[in-house]
């Protein structure tokens, strides 16, 4: 079923009875050409691109829960291409270009809104670092504008510019950055993949990976064994657990990241604002809720909820930056499990098992990577070669130490993230 303005009007006139489920609910087949473990944004996007660009349609996406139940439906929806280091810079640049055509490619409204992102700075040293980052973004072909204090005030007049600890010196403005509706992205890719013949199988947990003589043969699941010559592990926060089924120990720690939303308010914040020094960022959803978050909770966990000290820290930073927020009531908070790598950059690679691929390590930034990651992993699975923008996302960089992409500037230490 195609979507159009005409269709919306027609359904409105005839009682909304013509809509159909947007993907099938097939039973697993005994064998596929490829299996994607994990029906999050990255897994669904991979299946979509395998079918669209490489004509591979005998594929199953196996999801232990329901589509949209993982991090793809839990994030704060920020989409941007303002990475600094070679390796990340070209990858996220490519991913943002795919975002810009996603709604047409999927024929699905994901509410992608390029409302602009402003990263604030609060010292001369930080200004220099952001000027450098902005130049790197422009060299990459993306957009960046260095704003002084008055330039920020024009966009964000409601901030506290004279906070004693964090006076605002200026900001790096990335006009093409913005937000999208997170679960619509999962639904759009699920629909697009299903339309091309991909089986999306929910409530199907992978419990084992079958390997013979170093070659992958298929998977064991809660709904029986399924054979495949190619299998990809795309399970975000569960990467360590699923990789262990193939005898792999990944350089990944799973940490909780929380987010918050207030009651619906009239439009007040029309950008994404990031206050890195205080560990706080915010945007306003189309429903009016202020959506905001901070840093990870800094302990390894598989719980999809966080602890009170981080909540207090985030609220404290919010009040520092924009005291007016104290009048809003927080409606909900939630958490997701982040797959943190030591250098803050992801992994898209083959493994030591023939036919077994892995896509993980997206830390707290993998939503914006959904189209680029799916495109790249599909390319790797179909052709055996890396697509140029993801060529540096190699797994062995953590063993050899060569090619680390230390985006966070923290050194290869998890607890400094
Ligand atoms: C609070 C929060 C805020 C965030 N904010 C942003 C942001 O603003 N911008 C941004 O770019 N990123 C953000 N992120 C990060 C982003 O959401 C993740 O990096 C990204 O969604 C991870 O990829 P995914 O969508 O494929 O993950 P998921 O949606 O988690 O998909 C993985 C899937 O694998 C399934 N699975 C696990 N084990 C198995 C198994 N054994 N068998 C079958 N299926 C299995 C899971 O059920 C899950 O559905 C945020 C994350 C959180 C939690």
Give a structural overview.
- With 417 residues, this protein is an alpha/beta fold.
- The chain has 10 helices and 18 strands.
- The strands form 3 sheets. Strands 1, 2, 8, 9, 10, 11, 17 and 18 form an 8-stranded mixed beta sheet that branches. An 8-stranded mixed beta sheet has the order 5-6-4-13-14-15-12-16.
- The model has no long low-confidence stretch (mean pLDDT 96).
Number of β-strand runs:
18
Bound molecules: flavin-adenine dinucleotide
Mean pLDDT: 96
Rounded radius of gyration (Å)? 21 Å
SS element count, helices: 10
What's a quick, concise take on this entry?
This protein has helices at 5-13, 41-54, 88-106, 124-140, 149-155, 182-195, 239-244, 308-321, 370-383, 397-400, and strands at residues 31-37, 59-62, 78-79, 117-121, 145-148, 170-174, 178-179, 199-201, 206-212, 215-221, 224-233, 253-264, 272-275, 280-284, 289-300, 330-340, 347-350, 356-360. The protein is α/β, with parallel strands linked by helices and 417 residues long. Strand 13 (272-275) and strand 14 form a beta hairpin.
Which properties best describe this structure?
417 residues; alpha/beta; eight-stranded mixed sheet; 26% strand; binds flavin-adenine dinucleotide
How does the SSE layout of this entry go?
Elements: H1 5-13, E1 31-37, H2 41-54, E2 59-62, E3 78-79, H3 88-106, E4 117-121, H4 124-140, E5 145-148, H5 149-155, E6 170-174, E7 178-179, H6 182-195, E8 199-201, E9 206-212, E10 215-221, E11 224-233, H7 239-244, E12 253-264, E13 272-275, E14 280-284, E15 289-300, H8 308-321, E16 330-340, E17 347-350, E18 356-360, H9 370-383, H10 397-400
Parallel strand pairs: 1-2, 1-11, 2-8, 4-13, 11-18
Antiparallel strand pairs: 3-7, 4-6, 5-6, 9-10, 10-11, 12-15, 12-16, 13-14, 14-15, 17-18
Helix pairs in contact: 2-6, 2-9, 3-9
The structure holds flavin-adenine dinucleotide.
């Amino acid at each position: 079923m195609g979507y159009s303005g005409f269709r919306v009007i027609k359904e409105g006139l005839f009682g909304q009875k013509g809509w159909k489920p947007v993907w099938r609910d097939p039973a697993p087949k005994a064998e596929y050409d490829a299996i994607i473990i994990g029906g999050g944004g990255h897994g669904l996007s991979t299946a979509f691109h395998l079918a669209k660009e490489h004509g591979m349609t005998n594929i199953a996406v196996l999801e232990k829960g329901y589509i949209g139940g993982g991090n793809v439906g839990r994030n704060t929806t920020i989409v941007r291409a303002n990475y600094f280091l070679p390796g990340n810079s070209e990858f996220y640049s490519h991913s943002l270009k795919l975002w810009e055509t996603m709604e047409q490619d999927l024929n699905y409204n994901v509410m992608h809104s390029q409302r602009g992102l402003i990263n604030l700075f609060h010292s001369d040293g930080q200004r220099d670092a952001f000027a450098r980052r902005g130049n790197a973004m422009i060299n990459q072909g993306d957009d960046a504008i260095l704003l002084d204090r008055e330039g920020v005030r024009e966009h964000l007049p409601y901030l506290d510019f004279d906070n004693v600890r964090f006076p605002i010196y200026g900001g790096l403005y990335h006009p093409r950055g913005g937000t999208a509706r997170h679960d619509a992205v999962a639904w759009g890719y699920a629909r697009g993949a299903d339309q091309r013949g991909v089986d999306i199988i929910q409530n199907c947990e992978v419990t084992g990976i079958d390997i013979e003589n170093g070659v992958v043969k298929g998977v064991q699941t809660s709904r029986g064994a399924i054979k495949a010559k190619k299998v990809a592990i795309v399970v975000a926060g569960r990467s360590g657990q699923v990789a262990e089924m193939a005898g792999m120990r990944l350089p990944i720690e799973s940490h909780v990241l929380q987010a918050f939303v207030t009651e619906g308010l009239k439009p007040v914040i029309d950008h994404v604002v990031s206050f890195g020094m205080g560990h706080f960022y915010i945007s306003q959803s189309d429903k009016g809720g202020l959506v905001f978050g901070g840093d990870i909770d800094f302990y390894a966990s598989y719980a999809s909820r966080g602890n009170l000290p981080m909540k207090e820290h985030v609220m404290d930073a919010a009040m520092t930056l924009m005291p007016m927020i104290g009048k809003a009531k927080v409606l909900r908070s939630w958490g997701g499990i982040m797959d943190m790598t030591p250098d803050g950059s992801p992994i898209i690679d083959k493994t030591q098992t023939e036919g077994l691929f892995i896509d993980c390590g997206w830390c707290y930034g993998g939503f914006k990577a959904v189209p680029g990651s799916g495109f790249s992993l599909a390319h790797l699975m179909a052709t055996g070669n890396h697509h140029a923008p993801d060529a540096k996302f190699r797994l062995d960089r953590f063993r050899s130490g060569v090619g680390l992409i230390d985006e966070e500037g923290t050194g290869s230490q998890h607890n400094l993230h």
